[in-house]
Amino acid sequence: MPIPSRPLTASPMNRRCFLVTATGLALAALSPSAWSLAKGLTPLETPAPAPALRLQDLQGKTIDLAQYRGRVVLVNFWATWCPPCRKEFPSLGRVRNLFKPEEFEVLAVNVDEDRETALAFAGSPGFPVLLDSNSKATMTWPIKGLPTSFLIDPQGRLAFSLAGEQEFDGPEVVAAIRGLLQP
Question: Which of 5, 69, 78, 149 has its CA 20 to 30 A from that of 96?
Fold first, then answer.
């Protein structure tokens, strides 16, 4: 089934996605070590409470990040018009399957798109896909572009940020999740 397309607009998130992609390409042209500074898992020096996140999922059920207190949560901000987001999306399901549901959850926040567009791409991925069609919730998070993700510790604090495209089931991210699960 073809993915519905929509014209690129100059929304704040489209501009952010372009900026992150352009910056990453420029750094990649410089050197591989410079690229690693722009992309990857970054521990936050002082974990702060995660911003509120209460949105409807693809089925219309309201999901609140607060209901996952006691678990590690990977919050991923993405959109179908963002090529790196599309590429990394399957790895969200793979990392979700590596951990017990009572320990870890993935929340994928679709930014600035309607339900039909998100559903046509995501289908039923095995984790909640939340809809932030007006980007209001997204703008309260420390995001500079898409894709951006955060690991939330069991106390509900931002522990790590992940900028740019990721393989979430890669060793670095999996080790960070396991570290957050340790008492």
Answer: 5
pTM: 0.81
pLDDT digits (tens, 9 = 90+) for 19-34: 444 434 333 333 333 3
At residue 35, the 3 state secondary structure works out as helix
Residues β-bridged to residue 75? 107, 150
Q: How far apart are the C-alpha atoms of 132 and 135, rounded to whole Å? A: 5
pLDDT at 11: 55
Which residue range(s) make up the domain with 66?
12-181
Neighbours of 163 (CB within 10 A): 21
Do 51 and 75 form a contact (C-beta atoms < 8 A)?
A: no
- Tell me if 24 is assigned to some domain: yes
In a domain, 5, yes or no: no
Are the C-beta atoms of 147 and 136 separated by less than 8 Å?
A: no
Q: Which pair of tokens denotes residue 47?
A: 């974990």
Q: How far is residue 29's CA from residue 57's CA, in Å, rounded to a whole number? A: 38
Residues 6+ apart with CB under 8 A from 7: none
Count how many Cα atoms sit within 13 Å of the Cα of residue 168 in the half-sphere of its side chain: 34
Coil vs helix vs strand at 82: coil
